[in-house]
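Appendix B. Extra example for self-study. Work through it before the problem class; the solution is given directly after the inputs so you can check yourself.
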Amino acid sequence: MKVLMFGWEFPPFKSGGLGTACYDLTKGLSRQGIDVTFVMPAAPEGANAQFVKLLGANNFSKNVKVRKISSILAPYQSFTSYAEALKQMKSRAGLKKNPNDIYGTNLYEEVYRYSIAAEEIAEEEQFDVIHVHDWMTYQAGINAKRVSGKPLVAHIHATEFDRTGGNPNQMISHMEYQGLLAADIVIANSNFTKQNVVQHYNIDPGKIEVVHWGIDPENPHYGINQKSPFDDEKVVLFLGRITIQKGPDYFIETADRVLKYLPNTKFVVAGSGDMFERMINRADELGILDRFLFTGFLKGADVHRAFQLADLYVMPSVSEPFGLVALESLKNGTPILISKQSGVSEVVNNALKTDFWDVDEMANKIVNLLKYSELLEELKENSIMEVQKFNLDEPAMKTKAAYERALTIRR
Amino acid sequence: MRKYSIFDIGKKNDYFDDEKNIEVLRKVARKCYLPANSLMLELLERNPEFKISYSLSGVFIEQCERWAPEVIESFKRLVATGRVEILSETYYHSLAYLFSKEEFKEQVMMHKRKIKEVFGYEPRIFRNTELIYNNEIANFIESMGFKGIIAEGWDPILGWRSANFVYRPKTTKSIRLLMKNYKLSDDIAFRFSNRGWEEWPLNTEKFCQWVNGYNGNGECINLFMDYETFGEHQWEDTGIFEFMRHLPGELLKHPDNNFKTPSEVIDTYEPKDEIDCHSMISWADIERDLSAWLGNRIQQSSASRLYSLEKDVKKTKDSVLIDAWRKLQTSDHFYYMCTKWFNDGDVHKYFNPYDSPYDSFINFMNVINDVVLRIKSGHGKKSSETASEVKGSEVGKAL
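Solution. Structure tokens for the complete assembly:
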């Protein structure tokens, strides 16, 4: 079986859950003997390079082919951040053409331009199924389906409702809806996401397959074994984009409550985002800023180091379609406290779980965990054992089954 | 127990969720205790040879007295037939023997007094919580004056012997050991409605054939099970009540069969051999050990923390506080913290009010910390004075 996949750039070039998810899925699929032509937007070194063809990229067997479309699209972009990226591109010296000649003047135009380029690729390539990842690639998928007549599988990693804390951009949610509607099969990364898709977009639940994410057990960073530099202080970690979706404000309020019981606790915040300033201001207002350490955006091995030095990872997401990062924490031997409003809470038993808004309960759990080493050890041991059940093969097999179902529907 | 957060420490001391307990008790009374008791009474009246025996914890009797007195009345009617024996156990359905023999003894005596008060009856046979047993317990129980003790008829303990005789525990003089026939007991208690079981559906004829099969190589078959088997674990629509309704009559068809209470059994039959049981056994899970209650760190540490308070709690002479401390000893609290099968998502789910073993531990430790504060305030000021003054940092230090 051959798949034409429109995905996102692999780590370590770009970080974030979507790139990792695409990388892991492609790796898993290639092990299932599926041929993948992987198309992704890539900011060019020289803007004149239209398509770069890379055959047999590193880390993959021969059945994966990577194609890049020159574009400054990136996951989690908004209209504002796209404009920012475009401005940077314009100011960059050495461009032979005015970027406006190539890139869309706004995010919407760029997505449209990308979908036209995608159409050309679809005409050139041989494949059985089209697989697209999140709204920015949905139009590309729709176009590819139109020119090829092949079935479309739309993967939904996060809805616009998740990303915006329930205040969707109308244009984006419309494009999301179009893609989900046009898809023969929708793959949701959790039951949580499936419910959101059904609730917000009224998509037929019968065509939605749930494929929970797995994790690559082979990552060498798990073995770094970073020690905490804070001798007798316990470390509670927040790691993720500092945006409304991830609940950074609830983290601060929880910290304030924990510190009343355990004043010696250190809170490490790893990540960047539009709520960064607000987070600092609130911590200052509460008089607890000195108990915080902000690392900024981390990537590669540093992410794993952050997990390893922490005693507990807290993911207070308001709406977390899956939350792969929670599994990464467990892989690094750090127990987790996750919000019940997450996909990962459906598949991990050995975790502390609360509602994202229940800061009292989060504090209740954190204080007890830091206070009683037997609780920490018990949770740690069991969760390390449990995370071994996750791998890349199971999601790949389920995805393959979804392809087969899409092919049957199309016939 | 109620949801009890760290923020409640020093502020609230109503640890037990009466509303929920009332709800569960009344539900089970309706589905099991009342219909099962009336069935047993019917069977006793119809079959003059039928006999049955009950083990009721003090906490259970107390709850029934408060919230379902009709259940107590129906048990009294059963006992009044003269063919129903009540067994001894710890008042609080606790693991006290494993932590404090003194506390254990007090609870057994409390239970004895309660049974005397309610049923005018003095138990002679002891059964420990969860059938926890070894030589030493048998010895201790003998020294307390009991005539018999019940344990799981677990094969590694029995060796080549059969569970269907009376035995003498090693290191004891006169006490008798009755061993539960777990195969036949579990056929009813666990497998009765299991459609995947090759013997399903189980009817009285088939079951009686199995029992009759022991004739000639056994003197007593001890069937021992949760009473909730009737109507709660096995719902009424599985036919469990009909099965039971026909069981005594069908068993009595065979001339070699009869019914005896545990006391009658040990008075009738001589011990066949000595049973040596050095390590602790129980009736739980495939391991038949203590791991369901004390298998992991959080279970062990919360239990030892609880029992470490014994002296100080008793010193307060505050009967409300002592009673609360004892209610925290009920084995279920530790069962909820079991992580054995949590990985497979197969929690000991039934009746478990917690989302996870960890939540259960956290709730329990918060309550213990409040008990500690109450003990401290009992020595100094009155608890009502300090309650509202407790600040987070003080509680943090107290933890």
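Self-check: Residues 46-59 of chain A have pLDDT under 50 and may be disordered. If your reasoning did not lead you there, revisit section 3.
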